[in-house]
Amino acid sequence: MPVTAKKPLAERLLEGDRNAVARLITWAESGDRRYTKSLQTFYPKVGRAARLGITGPPGAGKSTLVNELVRVLRARERSVGVLAVDPSSPFTGGALLGDRIRMESHTSDPGVFVRSMASRQSHGGLARAAIDACDVMDAFGMDDVLIETVGVGQAEYDVIQAADTVVVVLCPGAGDGVQAMKSGLLEVADVLVVNKEDLPGAHRLAADLEEAVHIRLAGKDAWQTPVVMCSAGRGKGVEKVLDAIDAHRAFLGEAGLAELRKQKRCGQVRLAVGELLDEALWGEGGYSQRVESELAAGRTPYEIANEVRDAVLSGESGANGAERG
Amino acid sequence: MPVTAKKPLAERLLEGDRNAVARLITWAESGDRRYTKSLQTFYPKVGRAARLGITGPPGAGKSTLVNELVRVLRARERSVGVLAVDPSSPFTGGALLGDRIRMESHTSDPGVFVRSMASRQSHGGLARAAIDACDVMDAFGMDDVLIETVGVGQAEYDVIQAADTVVVVLCPGAGDGVQAMKSGLLEVADVLVVNKEDLPGAHRLAADLEEAVHIRLAGKDAWQTPVVMCSAGRGKGVEKVLDAIDAHRAFLGEAGLAELRKQKRCGQVRLAVGELLDEALWGEGGYSQRVESELAAGRTPYEIANEVRDAVLSGESGANGAERG
């Protein structure tokens, strides 16, 4: 213990230390620069895990499905990391976290690692932290990483982008089928799940979704989103969900997956650059005072924003340019 | 008509042309640069309207309350602009918009202007567009602008920041009281409304909220968030809600309001700069290709992000520096 404690966290992660997983994710969440340093050590080990995103409206049974997926994956002798993200936390913070902490403490299986994130930090920050958490669990050696979001808002949409395969969970009732069809929910789905298949309306919902999926079908070579019925609460049909996920993975192939991930990494860099510039421009020695006096002079926010942009791009803002993270 | 059509939209806005209101908001929503040009004309007329934000969990009766507030404000001979924002639209798009379009068509009162925004654009973009829409309705001459959000997520939180006074609407049931207290919902509230006061549990909820508000009270001179009970559906107690809003306004005073708005404008500039830089850095001639090849070389996203930041701040990115919006 005294010996391992002195080792860098990234090394402990690669040696299978669960505390290192937790600690690194905490660093990532809080924007601690030690995370980005550590990543340089374990990044070569990132990329092996299959990343599954599970989203859908509240009440669709996402958590139950995730629990069942974990059970079946474990039966297949796959190790599983679970990341539960609640971007709505500025308002609804506590609730989900409570559930998750319960779930975590119930888990004594070393092949499972559960982590929740409910955050008041900026929206972009949460999406970044979700990717980081996946990277950590991936490098730790988890075969699958499940990212579950609580709701279906913009922030959830961004978080779910960390996944290779997105599963959208719906259930009959509350007009979910119609709403899902009108909205963008179908567009992000690689696999559609109709949960609570025993409820009235489940078959109708599945048929409607099938039809909607066929209509939006882009071309012959495009992935055709399957509609899978299950009853996660009764442990029925969960294998079929996993089969559909595997089929999507097979469809992507190695090259397709690599291309998808490259795009996602580019997006991650873009997000990170935005955060870094935001820090540099609005912290000490930044543009805040200049903006205040321009505003006081009656200039419009967009005139001022244009000027700041031009100043930044022409290298006028020297102060923070040299600093490095 | 042929004559007015040739006039700049901003002038038509100031002359009371309702079509100009709609058109300018559409420009703002779509990020059309004609909006920022127009703003320079009408910005001197912005700042007179009282901006009220109304938020709360789904089912609390926000829309009903907004309708009643409009009715009472009209009875007081105040003109009212209403902006209904649904940031959750990437998934739930159509639903709200339908309601709102119905409401809009029912409105033949020239003293009322209703506009809805349900958007798939980026989260930051929606917050920006909400501020713009308020500015347009303000310059048009509306005495009050009501911003209503659908849910209670991070995006709603940002949108509601456009308001001078934030009203949080709750109602008994569904554990809303406890959730609201655990969460940040109380922290953003300048006025707390317990709607559906006839339902069982309403008085208990109000009492709990009163207590929670007293506990978090920062200091003697701080605004003490009032808890107001009403039944918007029966038109009961809505006057009291408005009285509480007026009291908050009076508490702020002219200087307090000016300070609050200055801060919000600074935030708006910061948001706009972020959007402009994002465009400049990742469009044609930007950093995308460099990032791709660095990623291919196995470097971590954050190493690359740091380098891009340094390059930007040192003025290395010449290409887009000269362009102006």
Assign an overall shape of chain A.
globular
Structural class of chain A: alpha/beta
Enumerate the spans of chain A where pLDDT stays under 50 for 5 or more consecutive residues: 89-99, 319-325
Order of helices and strands of chain A: HHHHEHEHHEHEHEHHEHEHHH
First-to-last CA distance of chain A: 30 Å
Helical fraction of chain A equals: 55-70%
Biggest sheet record of chain A = 7 strands, parallel
Read across the widest sheet of chain A, the strand sequence of neighbours is: 3-2-4-1-5-6-7
What integer value in Å does the Rg of chain A equal? 22 Å
Instruction: Indicate the CATH class of the domain at 46-254 in chain A.
Output: Alpha Beta
